[in-house]
């Protein structure tokens, strides 16, 4: 799961700052997935991101603010939910798998590390609930929408665990579209039950 | 997810030893789900299990042997797979949910902590592959059985994450049989595709 350390590659002003921020967030996310919150230092995040610790402070304020950003699912949910409802099952399965395959990250899987982060874990859970489950619920119609949103999301979480953590040999050697064909119907059945 | 510390409750010889071993395994499993492998001490496991560290050594030999037991899915897979193939989808979903609800544990979910355990994580993944995915594959017939086994297992992992880690309010407030009704068809569709 951990990608290689990354350094910003762009050079022009504004884009450079954005690329640097993204590198810092990637580095912080890596540590969040491998260490307890209290064990993570700004220095380590800075080293992994290829920047200085003061630069992190300049961009994010302090360690807690940085991790608040990392613990947010807002931006990832935007991309995850970016499809019409009748195609959303296929889109979400494809988005999880291509994110894992192409970038070694998963839009929602960091929720599994909640138990390692003490009180921060509760923040992660609350964010997940409002920014993922509830946002998906708002897209649905019909009875039991909140439950169906959780069940649809759970299928995506399971695929993420199997691909990125258990590293299942079969799902990793099968094309994304093949897995979409096999898994999206179960997701869509929760979104728009017949 | 963490249950309260447990102490053996039985008194007669043989049963007492079994209950003590179970308490030690539960304690070790708790730490495995919350701390990096290197940070876990026999003393901490002993305290949580309500036994002495020498007693752990007597029963399991050493820390590595104890964790080898904890990293095995053998016994859990026995219970998970204990149903005829045509009812296995419902059985597996029900087994995951009742284990979570009644005992605060999950038969297979500890695979998600693999990233925290360094080389031990690879052992956990290899065990998961041979003791869960491959054992399920051996029960299946028809094309792509290994892939279908991983996809069926991934649904169970996702439910476990949603219930035990994300603590989804909906899945936790819905009856097990209701969730079985809603989720087992997707699992069974992987096991015995029509």
From TrEMBL, chains A, B:
<protein>
    <submittedName>
        <fullName>TetR family transcriptional regulator</fullName>
    </submittedName>
</protein>
<dbReference type="InterPro" id="IPR036271">
    <property type="entry name" value="Tet_transcr_reg_TetR-rel_C_sf"/>
</dbReference>
<keyword id="KW-0238">DNA-binding</keyword>
<dbReference type="Pfam" id="PF00440">
    <property type="entry name" value="TetR_N"/>
</dbReference>
<feature type="domain" description="HTH tetR-type">
    <location>
        <begin position="18"/>
        <end position="78"/>
    </location>
</feature>
<dbReference type="Pfam" id="PF17920">
    <property type="entry name" value="TetR_C_16"/>
</dbReference>
<dbReference type="InterPro" id="IPR009057">
    <property type="entry name" value="Homeodomain-like_sf"/>
</dbReference>
<dbReference type="InterPro" id="IPR001647">
    <property type="entry name" value="HTH_TetR"/>
</dbReference>
<dbReference type="InterPro" id="IPR050109">
    <property type="entry name" value="HTH-type_TetR-like_transc_reg"/>
</dbReference>
<dbReference type="InterPro" id="IPR041678">
    <property type="entry name" value="TetR_C_16"/>
</dbReference>
<feature type="DNA-binding region" description="H-T-H motif">
    <location>
        <begin position="41"/>
        <end position="60"/>
    </location>
</feature>
